[in-house]
Write a structure and sequence with these properties.
The protein is of the alpha/beta class. The chain folds into two domains: 128 residues, 3-Layer(aba) Sandwich (Rossmann fold), CATH 3.40.50.1970; 29 residues. The protein has six helices and five strands; from the N terminus they run E-H-E-H-E-H-E-H-E-H-H. It has a five-stranded parallel sheet. Strand 1, helix 1 and strand 2 form a beta-alpha-beta unit. Helix 1 runs parallel beside helix 5 and helix 5 crosses helix 6. The longest helix is centred in the last third of the chain and has 28 residues. The model has no long low-confidence stretch (mean pLDDT 96).
Length: 163
């Protein structure tokens, strides 16, 4: 099956964090692809990728970048697909620069933004978007939510026994 989610990152060093998105998509059975491209070092590549993403069968794009973090916005400028930005912690500002660059988009160019280094949440948000039209995926997400609640209840029981 062709990929429906693209996970893109500004440099190969971003893979360490963005791997959480790739693993989560795999766990949920969502076909995905991964790319490295830069809003600053390869802007033409980014523009071509984003402009052709829908025709390539993609439904959601997750873009992770640090520091200036213009990747998600550059992608969103060239597509009407949902774009989810993952601001990455890099440089001297602890990710605040990436967070602000990702969330402060101009009117008409929306980028959904998750927490700094929030690649797993980006994948879950992509899954929730896809689940609007996929009842089997929705059931897998429901099961995941139930499992998280069960895990928390178990953690609470362990704490109560130790306290």
């Amino acid at each position: 099956m062709p990929a429906v989610v693209a996970v893109i990152m500004g440099s190969e060093s971003d893979l360490e964090v963005m791997q959480d998105a790739l693993r989560t998509l795999d766990e949920l059975g969502i076909e995905r692809e991964a790319h490295v491209m830069s809003a600053h070092r390869s802007p033409e590549v980014v523009a071509r990728f984003a402009a052709g993403a829908s025709d390539a069968g993609l439904k959601v794009i997750i873009a992770g970048a640090g520091m200036a973090a213009h990747l998600a916005g550059a992608v969103a400028a060239h597509t009407t697909l949902p774009v989810i930005g993952v601001p990455l912690v890099a440089g001297h500002l602890g990710g605040m620069d990436a967070l602000l660059a990702t969330v402060q988009m101009p009117r008409g160019v929306p980028v959904a933004t998750v927490a700094t280094n929030g690649a797993r949440n980006a994948a879950l948000l992509a899954a929730q978007i896809l689940a609007l039209e996929d009842s089997r995926l929705r059931a897998r997400l429901d099961a995941l939510k139930r499992q998280m609640a069960e895990d928390l209840a178990e953690a609470s029981r362990r704490i109560m026994q130790k306290a």
